[in-house]
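note to self: dont lose this again. the chain is below, predicted strucutre after it. 480 aa total, dont forget to put it in the shared folder this time
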Amino acid sequence: MGVEPTSSRFGSTPPPLPADLARMLEAVRAVGRPRLVGGGVRDWLLGIEPKDFDVEVAGATFDTLHRALARFGATDVVGRSFGVIKVRSAATGAEYDFSLPRRESKTGAGHRGFRVEPEPNLSDADAAARRDFTINAIACDPFTGEIIDPHGGREDLRAGILRHTSAAFSEDPLRVLRAFQLAARFDLRLAPETAELCRQISDTYAELPVERVWGEWQKWATKSTRPSRGLAVLEDSGWLRHFPEIAVLRGTPQDPEWHPEGDVFTHTQHCLDALVALPEWADSLPERRQLLIFAVLAHDFGKPATTVFAEKRGAMHWISPGHESAGGPLAKNFLRRIGAPLHFDEPVCALVVHHFAHHHGHDGRFSDSQVRRLARKLAPATIDDLAMVMRADSNGRPPLKSPTTDRLIEELVRAAHTLAVQRAAPRPILLGRHLLALGRKPGPDFKPLLDAAFEAQLDGAFSDEAGGVAWLKQHLQPRE
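---
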């Protein structure tokens, strides 16, 4: 079942609109028939405050529409050939898209191979048919609240179904990845006939520019309420094969004693849902959300290559020794394949490689040196980031709960907070200037000396500049 629509939204009360947009709509009403369309209507029907307002205006020409809007702020008419005008409100700075109804026809391969023809007198049903999914093909009269829903989008919203609007869906392969992120954002299932259509166009994935692929993964990573639904769409559509690091998780066994939920793919789905359920994830900025969700997605990428049925604690079990370190390079390969920004590589890989660090303490007691060195290895990710990945991993084994694992995570976090390294790695206290102040001349021995000083700092030999200088004097004494 998808996000439950707010029942009152299906009545005849117009949606609340920003005052500047309401004034624009009144002006446009004099030259055509404006409709609110697209994701803003979908979100309003779901009881979610719309962030974007798109307006489609039938019965007007491009020039009359432009004249009606020009007095409200700067207008961008670069989309003239598509019948699109962007207006930046002089009153608030907000941007709104106004467009004419249009038809689209396929002219070539790829996401951009279309010819667009504005048709001011196109019917509501024909105008909506070009949209990807029925839930995005609902329009609303902004003055009366009347819902125009020629393709049954409201019923699909109620049922939690993601269904294509027309056979033209198959002309744009990006729509499959839109299905992937929309399902995760709104807790939707792919309609069987839509899944079949996606399977038929699976080979067209290669036509997509990598930046468009990343755009959909980014939405999934930032806005998901149930990210497992996105992975289910990739599997049902046959598009999981384009992401082999994920695809191979399906069927990789796990020992039921520790993982009653099923194979590694199922475990990963549960972990992702567990992550976004954490209040800290919801409160995080988009960049951190992306870092954490990709780390959780990739945390067991190393299991397919390392899983064996072997003896452990006197009995035979499915085990995956070394899967943490094996997963790091695979995580990087995956990020490169989907076009993620390069700055994600290092922290995501570090979180994958160290996601079992809480089990490496001695009965939950972590030495100061262990914690400092872990913070250093994770940078630019942090121990607080790692704790969230660990909690998601632990919570992703329903119905199994592990108070012992929870305690280990909390002990690690507590130790990191005590040492003030929970959000940043330790920085070297001793620098080249300290060597110069002691009369050392720059040379090849500077780096080894500073490296040794930092190792001593991590081991707790000193914690401030005065202590560091004292340590350095003692360390240099035998050399003088």
